[in-house]
Design a protein that fits this description.
CATH architecture of the largest domain: 3-Layer(aba) Sandwich
CATH class of the largest domain: Alpha Beta
CATH topology of the largest domain: Rossmann fold
Largest sheet: 6 strands, parallel
Order of helices and strands: EHEHHHEHEHHEEH
Structural class: alpha/beta
Helix content: 25-40%
CATH superfamily of the largest domain: Flavodoxin domain
Number of domains: 2
């Protein structure tokens, strides 16, 4: 299996860095081919601007979606974006690792998605019959994705009644709105809590958890998100009344919420 590991932490000697190093070794031990995008080490530019789109940007008002689609179709995207898209095309699975900062990934990772998942590649993809392919379909369909996240909060505080909100809800924009949106099958996350104060024994537990999850990366059941075009949503993309009646919020978009 080809696995792309996208790493977004500024300190390679951190807990995250140690887990990344062990995770890459583990994947190779299991016989997988691995490539990495270490965004801080690469000094990745997270800012979308006209330079991303070559001649397609022109001199007028920049309309990012339309311009990026033309640049993608005509081979005008900047070389750093193309290199990341080629890694994604190569990959069968993508591991996205980051510390949770202010309820979201670091800006450098958000900027990776902003610049790499351009229209025509990450979104704005249509079937021959005109259907928009997203939320379970799309150009990246058939690939698997798994988030590895470290959080400063302790686990109870990110539970169903914790003050920080449940981790599944915190990660919903990334899991559902980015990875699943582009067609990928999203595996349950690997989470390490209290990451600023992890004793040796807890690190060993986190390492072993990650190793076990990587061992199952080809076979683990993904999060059962409802596909957009699978019949659960009406023409306004609202859940039909007989789907998860009485359930609202992110949980309603899981197939197990019947």
């Amino acid at each position: 299996m080809n696995v792309l590991w996208v790493f977004a932490h500024p300190e390679p000697r951190s807990l995250s860095g140690a887990l990344r190093d062990d995770g890459l070794r583990t994947l190779r031990e299991f016989g997988h081919d691995v490539r990495e995008s270490d965004l801080y080490a690469m000094k990745w530019n997270p800012v979308v601007d006209a330079a991303d789109f070559g001649a397609e940007a022109g001199d007028g008002r920049l309309v990012v979606g339309a311009t990026s689609a033309r640049a993608h179709a005509r081979g005008e995207l900047s070389a750093d974006i193309v290199a990341e898209q080629e890694k994604l095309d190569w990959a069968d699975a993508v591991v996205v690792q980051f510390p949770l900062w202010w309820y979201s990934p670091p800006a450098i990772l958000k900027g990776w998605f902003d610049r790499v998942f351009v229209k025509g590649f990450g979104y704005g993809v249509q079937a021959e019959d005109g259907r928009t392919l997203r939320y379970g379909e799309g150009r990246l369909a058939g690939k698997r994705a798994m988030v590895v996240v470290t959080a400063g909060a302790r686990e109870p505080a990110m539970g169903p009644r914790g003050v920080n909100g449940a981790l599944d809800d915190v990660l919903f924009p990334l899991h559902h709105g980015t990875l699943f949106y582009t067609g990928m099958s999203v595996l349950p996350p690997v989470a390490v809590y209290g990451a600023d104060r992890v004793p040796d024994e807890q690190f060993a537990e986190a390492r072993d958890l990650l190793r076990e999850r990587l061992r199952r990366i080809e076979t683990e059941e993904p999060i059962p998100f409802r596909t957009q075009n699978g019949g659960d949503y009406d023409d306004d993309l609202v859940l039909r009344p007989d789907r998860a009646p009485g359930v609202t919020g992110t949980a309603a978009h899981l197939r197990r919420a019947t």
